[in-house]
Design a protein that fits this description.
alpha+beta, three-stranded antiparallel beta sheet, 4 helices
């Protein structure tokens, strides 16, 4: 992992404005239950998010598109 791939919570929120800070912090708080722990680095009291792991985590939660059957 490279240093430019690591984001603070504030940087993540700026880069992905669809996700409010409160939502990201909820994901962090519940990381052991929702799989978000794979995205996190904890150094001292700080929490950082791996950009690549976050992108992968989002893709794992993608809902399959509904395909309408012909009538």
């Amino acid at each position: 992992m490279e240093g430019d791939n690591v984001l603070t919570v504030n940087q993540l929120v700026e880069e992905y404005p669809a996700f409010p800070e409160a939502t990201v912090r909820w994901w962090i708080f519940n990381a052991d239950r929702n799989g978000f722990a794979n995205c996190l680095l904890r150094i001292g009291g700080r929490v950082y998010v791996d950009r690549t792991a976050f992108s992968d985590w989002l893709n794992q939660h993608r809902i399959e598109p509904c395909v309408a059957e012909p009538v």
